Amino acid sequence: MGPSVLEVHRGTGTDAPADVLRAPRLAWRTVGPAGRIAVVGAVMACVLAVGWWLPSTALVLGTGGALVVLVAAALVDAVEHRLPNALVALAALPAVAAMAVGWEPSVARSVGTGALLMAVPLLVTHLAAPAGMGFGDVKAGVVLGGALGLVDGQLALFALVLGLAAGALWGLTRRARSIPLGPALVLGAVAALVVGRLLGVEAR
Question: So what's the pLDDT on residue 19?
Answer without folding.
Answer: 60
